[in-house]
Specification:
The complex is a heterodimer of chains A (864) and B (525). Chain A is of the alpha/beta class and 864 residues long. Helix content of chain A is 47%, strand content 10%. Among the domains of chain A are: 61-140 and 326-341, no CATH class; 147-314, no CATH class; 364-691, no CATH class. In chain A, the strands form 5 sheets. Chain A has a 6-stranded mixed sheet with strand order 11-10-16-17-18-19, with helices on both faces. In chain A, strands 2-1-7-8-9 form a 5-stranded mixed sheet. In chain A, strands 4-3-5-6 form a 4-stranded mixed sheet. The longest helix of chain A has 30 residues, at 437-466. The termini of chain A are far apart. Chain B has 3 domains: 1-129; 146-341 and 486-525, no CATH class; 359-480. In chain B, 73% of the residues lie in helices and 0% in strands. The termini of chain B are far apart. The chains are: A alpha/beta (864), B mainly alpha (525). The interface between A and B is large, with 116 and 126 residues.
Chain lengths: 864, 525
């Protein structure tokens, strides 16, 4: 639409709108044959499809916020994000400058990065890269309708419309999606858009904040439906068709937090084979706000605004291309940072023990989660007791389960967010190894009933503080009792981790409630067991004791506690998965069935579930009372080395937590527990901070190497994987999970405003588990808090792209790359590095070929 | 002896004020400012405890040596010293919490000194016995609080909240000066003790009455009742412990002063009515708003507004001992709840385990009847006449929610019976606990006003009815919910008024990440 047309049309907003409504009405009546409507619909859908989901707080798992943008090269995404939402994808130049001055990245890395990107051809040199660090990016984010209309001379004395609108939309979303915080909630099954319309038309407050005191009167012209709002904007703005989707994505990015929540709802719906349109409603709401502010401006201003908008967006693609080449420097620096780490990694891996010559028989095998925090414990355990073989597998142990604690209404997934659960686990009361099942059933019912009663009493008591009428007098009666609770904030205790899943269970049954797979016949069980063992690479050479070690964290008063738990278990601890799998594999019928599949588990082999507390580095075993005596003896024998190994890990972690590593074992354990039980502690542990690489290889490739808790480790032996199916699984599931984690940390650090949740001391939990606000309101905040990445003095993470190192033949890897577009995109577009072990060193995969990696120690390190 | 007592009496405020000054000294600042603060705070707590003991030991000697210290400026009262201890305990706990919570944040020394000064000036305010001291200290509390509210100075809503708080404070100052002038001109002295003596011997005059009205308006403003509540709700822009401090030890000072001025208020029907009207209004309206809030901290803040309304209501009804009890209970309760705000995720998870069920409609009707009966019977058994019958009825309405029966147990009589039994025992136990608290020797005289008591009972019945309606027939009250969700637009209007009256720049000058539009004037900063 030309400028002249825009000016002419702006004076006839009303008639335009009317005609548009009629048009849409007609279009709808004819099942939308209007080609423009279809195009608009497609653009809206494309914009909505660009937003990655954000899981709720109690199931918080890491996600790459650019997940749906990986189809584009990373630099292009960076350019688009900068122009569409003022979002940084690469590390800030300030950070890089710091890394450079502190010699974290050196000249050798920069030069290597330059040659990697063939930067000479683009006129980049060491000097120009260093020069750029002192300069701004040199381009700005593109304006939206609400920005170009916000021209009031007093605009600096109030909230910008962008902020105010985000605030209002955010509050509406919170009211709509909340199902736990408020006791008096909106009724009916309105769509999000209808609910917002209803709210805004009854709102008398937002105008004050926006400098539009008469706003309430201007709301009669609002689009009635989502479709109206979408169509209105795209037709009114007169933007070129090819930027529609970009403009709409920019609009969504102003409310990215809630858009991510809606994307989560859509993700869940689609996993269940349904659809979800909340995100489209959200987009429409933001678009309709354009109508509202448009009404507050006169025709001249409107025309001017349209003209500016069209000018800015008319050559959006050219600007994006320009930004893309401006960001070349940042991409080179990102690579230099990556290379600086890779250089160290290569050096370290050179010291690996390598395969042992004589066949080894192990006393104990222990399967840990691939989590970077397992690396330290595995290394320590192997060092303390060489007769332990450790393995790395995804922490949900391949069980696609959901868990429903006995006697409760709760049911939650315990598997990676990419998958939908297909099997259920619940607790069974098993008194001892010899109890019959029928006796257990009876006990189940009794315990479930007792638990329901207890939970009901708790609910009854809580009604005293929930309802204002009751709370008034309640605080008079029992308020003084809170003196003790208040005191407990000042002196946290050293008690061990408590399991929240046991709430309401009578204490004598707590140890007897054992998570068990239910509703499966023996054949299904055997099939699952076979699949799991195959994926773990554990089909022969079983040790007498096989530990399945899940992991979980321990923290108090922490809204983001789930983020420290096992991501592969959907933000829960791995306990349920480990215990139900151990029970499954100890079942005689299952073992008999497995023999048919060629997996012979010796009769003296027993599986034991355990939990690695990553905050205090303690390991707790489960269901030990069900083990035969011999296995219990092995377990007892393991305790000494295990305790020693844990102590080792605690000492290794202590300095990073500001603790003295020379403390006695008991004192250090107590210090860590106190920290974990401290409700004022915003940094109970560092979680996966520092993660940088993922090894898919036999343990011999890394055994004995100090990887500093920065590597995900998955065991894989390509000689046992004839058809490449295990490799395919690893590259399409665990690799994606590690990539998500890696990018959550990366994005939270590079753009803390949009992809980080801000300052923990201001966090205000929304809707019980939806997410947090920073302070009063504003957008829902996703990602990691500043305190999870920074200790107040220095960053505890480096924004690096994951280096995936695979021990497999080139051809086998290429098969997976060719078969799976996602893998191809991740590797080809620069979202991660794909390497493989060779006999001499490493090769990296780039542009469809394998090139040798040559990273001699840099000058700095060689000198040191 | 009096000299020693005087030292101890002044110690808490002196220690805290000194502590506030100390951490601004670079030598302390670089070393361990939190240790200095916590050490001083512990010492202040000990002194506050000694004061309570001293007051209690000398309660029988008349006039108490304590009360005579530094006449006419300062005087210790049993309630004042108890609250001083409470404030110091909460302040210390909040300090200890903050010392770990704020680790790594810039500006901690600024925080410590402001916290110490707030506590010090509150301590002084609690022993003030002169209009000038009272007005000065209260203003000082506000000024120091501003620094805490704007701990993150680049947050626009923090600035807006601080601006509103400033406006409210200045208005309250004007009212207090007015009240002081009126009373001083009548009594001939600024001493509050003398004012009480004067009222006792001469009765009320119009000037005293007018002074009382000004005083209670000032108190109501400082207690963040509707419509001056906006700043309290928006304090979420400051670190969590600041919210805990505010809700737990600063806004409720109004309650203390109302109890101090009880002799004036209980002679003044208009003052009482005003207190009942404003208190009841805030209790009911803010209580309903709280039910609609979607974020934990804002919900807690609204709950505080409601609770403050209830405390003021109790003062208006002449139930000063209950108001004092409320002040203690609520402070501790709310401080804890705020510090624990982030645990809500775990709490919700537990609530989900229990599941949610609709309530039996009949139980909504029968619950208050049974509850009133339980309260009345318990009272008759233990201590008849501790409070008026209408108060017992109000308690019954309040605690009726313990007897609401979930729908799922309709076919499970045994489960239902257990819940009912537990509910009844709970109510009886709570009544007993309230009774015990009521008997604390705080040296407070109640002057129940039966007429206003009826009004309050009606108000609480209305609140119960609203709760029952929104539970059983939510669609009927959907329009009302919308209004409640909007906070009845009171704060928006108040904000507009403040901005009109006091045009101010509440957007921080440097924005963290400014949006950059087209045009040469807007540069990225």
């Amino acid at each position: 639409m030309s400028r002249a047309t825009a000016t002419a049309s702006s004076s006839t907003i009303q008639s335009d709108r009317t005609s548009m409504q009629t048009m849409i009405g007609r279009a709808l009546a004819r099942e939308s044959v209007d080609p423009i409507s279809v195009k608009i619909d497609r653009a809206c859908e494309a914009a909505c499809r660009a937003i990655a989901p954000a899981w709720p707080l109690d199931r918080s798992i890491a996600v790459n916020p650019h997940w749906f943008r990986i189809g584009m090269p990373i630099r292009r995404v960076a350019a688009r994000m900068a122009l569409l939402g003022d979002i940084h994808v690469f590390p800030s130049r300030r950070y890089v400058k710091q890394a450079w001055t502190s010699a974290q990245v050196g000249p050798a890395d920069l030069e290597a990065a330059l040659s990697l990107h063939d930067a000479g051809a683009n006129g980049l040199s060491v000097a120009s890269c260093l020069d750029a660090l002192d300069k701004d990016l040199g381009f700005h984010c593109l304006p939206l309708l609400i920005d170009v209309l916000d021209t009031d001379p007093l605009k600096d004395t109030r909230l910008s419309w962008r902020q105010a609108i985000t605030h209002q939309v955010s509050q509406t979303c919170a009211a709509y999606f909340d199902h736990a915080q408020a006791d008096w909630r909106p009724q009916g099954n309105q769509s999000l858009y209808a609910f917002w319309l209803d709210t805004i038309q009854h709102d008398h407050g937002i105008g004050t904040l926006m400098g539009l005191p008469k706003l309430g009167k201007q709301l009669s012209n609002l689009p009635r439906t989502r479709q109206d709002a979408e169509q209105w904007v795209m037709k009114r703005l007169g933007l070129p068709e090819d930027v529609w989707a970009d403009y709409l994505e920019a609009v969504l990015l102003t409310i990215n937090g809630w858009a991510s929540w809606c994307a989560y709802l859509r993700w869940q719906a689609e996993l269940a084979g349904q659809s979800d349109e909340h995100i489209r409603d959200l987009l429409a709401i933001r678009l309709a706000w354009g109508v509202i502010v448009l009404e507050s401006r006169d025709d001249r201003e409107t025309a001017l605004a349209f003209a500016r908008l069209q000018k800015a967006w008319g050559d959006a693609h050219r600007q994006i291309t320009a930004a893309e080449s401006a960001l070349r420097v940042d991409e080179v620096w990102q690579s230099a940072l990556d290379l600086a780490y890779q250089r160290r990694l290569v050096q370290h891996l050179a010291y690996a023990e390598g395969p042992s010559l004589a066949p080894v028989t192990y006393d104990v095998q222990a399967a840990f989660c691939i989590d970077v925090r397992s690396e330290r414990l595995r290394r320590a355990l192997e060092a303390v007791w060489p007769a332990v073989q450790t393995m790395g597998v995804a922490g949900f142990f391949g069980l696609p389960i959901s868990y429903a604690p006995l006697g409760t209404e709760l049911k939650r997934p315990q598997l990676p967010g990419l998958l939908a659960p297909s099997v259920e686990v619940t607790d069974e009361i098993i008194l001892s190894a010899s109890t019959r099942q029928s006796a257990g059933r009876k006990a189940d019912q009794k315990v479930a009933r007792a638990r329901r009663d207890r939970l009901a009493f708790a609910t009854q008591w809580q009604s005293g503080t929930r309802w204002p009428g009751a709370a008034f007098s309640l605080v008079e009666a029992v308020g003084l009792g809170y003196l003790g609770k208040l005191f407990s904030w000042t002196k946290p205790g050293g008690q061990p981790r408590a399991n929240a899943d046991l709430t309401g269970l009578p204490s004598r049954y707590r140890r007897l409630a054992r998570p068990t797979l239910v509703g499966l016949g023996t054949e299904d069980k055997v099939a699952i067991a076979g699949k799991v063992l195959h994926a773990m690479g554990l089909e022969q050479d079983f040790a007498p004791l096989v530990l399945l070690v899940g992991h979980g964290s321990q923290s108090t008063n922490n809204a983001h506690a789930a983020a420290l738990d096992c991501g592969a278990c959907c933000g829960q601890t791995g306990e349920v998965n480990a215990r139900s799998l151990a029970r499954l594999l100890n079942e005689p019928a299952v073992r008999t069935g497995l023999q048919v599949h060629g997996i012979a588990i010796p009769a003296q082999t027993w599986f034991v579930a355990a939990l690695h507390n990553t905050t205090t580095d303690e390991v707790e075993g489960f269901d030990l009372d069900l083990l035969p005596e011999a296995a219990q003896r092995t377990w007892a024998r393991l305790q000494g080395p295990l305790a020693h190994a844990c102590d080792q890990v605690r000492r290794e972690r202590a300095p990073q937590l500001g603790l003295d590593p020379r403390l006695s074992c008991a004192a250090l354990t107590n210090a860590l527990r106190t920290r974990a039980n401290d409700g004022a502690q915003t940094r109970p542990e560092w979680g996966l901070a520092g993660n940088a690489a993922f090894l898919i290889a036999p343990r011999t490739r890394s055994r004995g190497v100090v990887l500093d808790g920065r590597c995900f480790l998955h065991d894989y032996d390509w000689t046992q994987d004839g058809d490449g199916s295990v490799l395919e699984l690893l590259l399409t599931a665990p690799m994606l999970v590690t990539h998500w984690i890696n990018w959550q940390y990366h994005a939270s650090m590079c753009d803390p405003t949009h992809f980080g949740s801000g300052n923990k001391v201001l966090h205000n939990v929304v809707g019980g588990n939806l997410g947090v606000f920073e302070g009063n309101g504003g957008d829902l905040r996703i990602g990691l808090a500043r305190q999870s990445l920074h200790d107040g003095e220095a960053w505890q993470h480096e924004p690096l792209r994951l280096t995936v190192v695979i021990d497999a033949p080139a051809a086998a890897i290429e098969v997976v790359i060719h078969k799976h577009e996602v893998v191809r995109q991740l590797v080809g577009n620069g979202w991660l590095h794909l390497w493989r072990f060779t006999s001499a060193g490493f090769e990296r995969y780039a542009d469809g070929t394998w090139r040798p990696v040559s990273l001699p120690p840099s000058g700095v390190e060689a000198a040191a | 002896m009096p000299q020693a007592l005087l030292c101890v009496l002044l110690a808490p405020s002196a220690l805290m004020l000194a502590g506030g000054a100390l951490v601004t000294v670079p030598a302390v600042n670089d070393a361990k400012p939190w240790q200095s603060f916590l050490g001083l705070s512990a010492a202040a707590t000990l002194c506050a405890l000694l004061n309570v003991v001293a007051i209690w030991l000398t309660a029988d000697s008349s006039p108490a040596p304590h009360a005579q210290c530094l006449q006419p400026w300062l005087a210790a009262t049993p309630l004042g010293t108890c609250i001083a201890l409470l404030v110091q305990v909460i302040g210390g706990a909040i300090g200890a919490f903050s010392s770990r919570y704020l680790a790594g944040e810039p500006g901690q020394c600024r925080y410590i000194s402001s916290l110490a000064w707030v506590l010090g000036s509150v301590q002084l305010l609690l022993i003030a016995d002169h209009w000038l001291v009272m007005i000065g200290c209260w203003a000082l509390v506000g000024v120091m609080l501003q620094r805490l509210l704007c701990f993150y100075a680049d947050r626009p809503f923090a600035q807006l909240a601080a601006l509103k708080k400033r406006a409210v404070d200045r208005l309250a100052d004007v009212l207090l000066v007015l009240a002081a002038t009126l009373s001083w001109s009548q009594v001939g002295s600024g001493s509050l003790t003398e004012l009480m003596h004067y009222v006792e011997s001469h009765g009320d005059s119009w000037a005293i009455q007018a002074s009382t009205i000004c005083l209670i308006l000032a108190i109501v403003l400082r207690t963040a009742l509707i419509p001056a509540h906006g700043w309290l709700i928006q304090v979420m822009e400051a670190p969590t412990p600041v919210s805990a401090l505010l809700h737990a030890g600063v806004v409720n000072l109004g309650g203390f002063w109302l109890i101090r001025f009880a002799p004036l208020i209980s002679h003044n029907f208009w003052a009482q009515s005003l207190l009942v009207a404003l208190g009841l209004g805030s209790a009911v309206l803010a209580g309903l708003v709280m039910l609609t809030r979607v974020s934990i901290k804002v919900s807690l803040a609204w709950s505080t507004v409601a609770q403050m309304g209830f405390m003021i209501l109790e003062c208006g009804l002449g139930l000063y001992s209950l108001a004092a009890l409320h002040l203690f209970g609520h402070s501790l309760y709310k401080a804890h709840r705020f510090l624990a705000a982030s645990s809500v995720v775990q709490d919700v998870r537990q609530a989900r385990m229990a599941g949610s069920a609709n309530l039996q409609p009949y139980s909504l009707v029968l619950a208050p009847i049974v509850a009133v009966a339980v309260v009345v019977l318990t009272l008759a058994e233990c201590h008849p006449g501790a409070w008026p019958w209408w108060w017992s009825s109000m308690l019954g309405f309040a605690w009726a929610s313990f007897l609401w029966m979930p729908m799922q147990s309709a076919f499970d009589a045994w489960h239902c019976a257990k819940l009912l039994a537990v509910g009844i025992v709970t109510i009886a136990g709570l009544t007993g606990a309230a009774l015990l608290g009521h008997l604390l020797p705080l040296d407070i005289q109640d002057h129940p006003n039966a007429g206003l008591g009826m009004v309050a009972l009606f108000g609480m019945a209305l609140l119960y009815l609203s709760q029952a309606t929104l539970l059983s027939a939510p669609t009927v009250v959907e329009g009302w919910r919308r209004w409640s969700y909007a906070g009845y637009y009171v704060d928006e209007r108040f904000t507009r008024l403040v901005l009109l009256w006091w045009p101010n720049r509440w957007m921080p000058k440097v924005r963290v990440r400014p949006y950059v539009a087209l045009g040469p004037t807007q540069e990225q900063s």
